[in-house]
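seq/struct pair 1
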Amino acid sequence: MHVREVKPLDLEPLGEIAYRTGFFGDSAHRFFPAQALFCDLWVRPYLEGAGCCGFIGEDETGKPLGYILGTCNLRQYQRWILQHLPRLLLRALRGEYPGLLGSLPYLVRMARYPTHLAPLETYPAQLHINLLPESRGQGLGSQLMEAYLSCLRSRNVMGVQLSTTRENTAAVGLYQKFGFHVYSEYQSPLWQPWLGRSTGHVVMVRGLS
């Protein structure tokens, strides 16, 4: 396996990996049937101006196995969503997001139970890491994390944060291995319709200065 920087042309394979792993390592279809919208919300912004330091892991044949995406300034991602919201709404009105109605319950709950954040003044960067099942346990997550943190340091980013749940035990272990610690933890009912219970959300941070 090798790691390289992501490119705009990687949108489709990155979106596929994101969707295949978006529900605690399994397919996001269970809670978000609109795959195209899922990609436009949680992958496209990082490739169109809101992201930095993105990397993709591939096998010897060039098959994508996982990625790490993030932004050096989370406010850039938030601005991207606001600026492109009219375009997303127009696509929705045109019927370009099959499965949209089935995805609305999650979008409503996400607005009702928003993710907590650590102070952006101290931890402005943010990341997401997703690996296909067949690539887990082989060191790819560590390769991606090393590349990402090294890139942030080269850009003099002060700190980085992420949000995950206690359901993602392997991911929490990886973050702790790389020096992340829990900034805050709280119970959230966000996933209750699909898991049948509330989940413990954790905000993890790492200083880089």
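seq/struct pair 2
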Amino acid sequence: MTPADVGDALVAAVRDAVAGGVVPPDGVDVVGRGPGVYASPVALRLGLDPEDLARRVARWPGVLRAEVARGMVVVFVEPGSLAAEVIAAGDSYGVARVPGGGWDEWPRTWENPGFAVRYAYARAAAVRRWADGLGIGPGEPVGLVRDEELALLGALGELPGRARQAERERDPGALVKCLERLAGAYHDVHERCPALPRGDEKPGAVHGARVTLAEAARIALANGMNMIGETPRERI
């Protein structure tokens, strides 16, 4: 489930809880809190019983469970499925109307967070090219259990909420920082959980899953960069 799907589940729970329940015109805020974990202040905002909403949303297809923490409804879903759903959403994933912003072009070193974001996009794009050349297609995103992979899934889930925050606050800062975290998480995956076989290693299901994860990261980074006025480049 994407954050938008979790939002839909919460909207349905609100309408189920209150006949003709009114949902805010700007929708339900959903913020990623980790791999497969999303939190929403919808109960607090609407003055509803969060325990009741959690029970109702837990019945939604794709939701593993839901609970309440400090009045927030916290929804748990299968984390790996997000990667495939980001790809399915494509250039619409997480998109909001965010003011322009970003980083300096120079220096092209790790001290410049903009370089890290641009390089993460270029690396993810290269995985797609190399995988195509090796005949390794995107696979089912299952078995993504390494800490680095889960951290990247968590960062992917965070992006839509931060984009909406940036739109609401008319300040790109929240999205810019999210992109920096997303880029850092992708670099960790790229270096420690390779999507392509090394040496005499045979391609397996894990490689297909990681190709899917890399493509999801590429799409999310591209969408985020486009929102703040950056042009994603496959080579820098």
